[in-house]
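A.,

Following up on our hallway conversation. Structure tokens first:
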């Protein structure tokens, strides 16, 4: 169901209303997770048959609060490769905060290009780099000032952080998945400027599939 919804909305976003496009975006997020995590599970299982214990590659990434947390949970082998062979050789965080921010942006931009030569991968990597930069900026300068605030405020802040992180990750997948940036732009234009719904995807099947995918993606290790 999710695959059909993704293809329909990505290929013809002008035919759908705003709610349908939001459902398409959510469907894409869970479809990509199931795809990446699924083949990693298969490779881990095959390795275990041969007596090899391979490292874990996903850790409930859609639970993340902030993009730094996301990249510690998502495609962890890629994250470690980017850290060891790009971020650290560029200087890492050893030359001050300003240089650290530049290195983060450069590392994620190059990590985007690693996925392919298309402009969409370059933009996707750059956006993730900017989000990581913002994440580190808040950790360096903003959050330390809230150490003494009430517990309810910290819990509310974490809830808001999760909501914003998950929402932005959904948006960036619309940049990552299509074959070119023109398709992504068309999707965002339809999402913002859409008129009345012409084709309805809102059904118990789609919603049920999204709920199931959400449970599987944030439910913990036993689902992954």
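Then the amino acids I'd put at each of the 224 positions:
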């Amino acid at each position: 169901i999710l695959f059909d919804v993704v293809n329909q909305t990505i290929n013809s976003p002008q035919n759908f209303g705003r709610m349908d496009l939001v459902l398409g975006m959510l469907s894409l997020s869970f479809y990509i997770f199931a795809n990446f995590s699924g083949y990693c599970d298969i490779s881990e299982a095959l390795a275990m048959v041969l007596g090899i214990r391979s490292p874990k590659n996903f850790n409930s990434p859609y639970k993340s609060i902030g993009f730094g947390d996301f990249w510690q949970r998502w495609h962890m082998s890629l994250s470690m490769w980017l850290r060891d062979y790009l971020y650290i050789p560029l200087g890492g965080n050893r030359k001050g905060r300003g240089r650290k921010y530049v290195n983060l942006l450069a590392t994620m931009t190059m990590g985007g290009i690693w996925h392919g030569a298309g402009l969409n991968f370059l933009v996707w990597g750059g956006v993730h780099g900017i989000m990581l930069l913002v994440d580190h900026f808040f950790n360096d300068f903003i959050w330390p000032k809230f150490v003494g605030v009430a517990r309810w405020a910290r819990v509310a802040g974490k809830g808001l952080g999760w909501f914003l992180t998950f929402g932005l990750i959904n948006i960036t997948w619309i940049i990552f998945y299509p074959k070119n940036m023109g398709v992504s732009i068309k999707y965002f234009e339809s999402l913002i400027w859409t008129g009345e719904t012409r084709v309805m995807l809102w059904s118990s099947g789609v919603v049920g599939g999204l709920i199931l995918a959400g449970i599987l993606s944030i439910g913990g290790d036993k689902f992954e």
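The two ends are 20 Å apart (CA to CA). Curious whether your intuition agrees with the design.

B.
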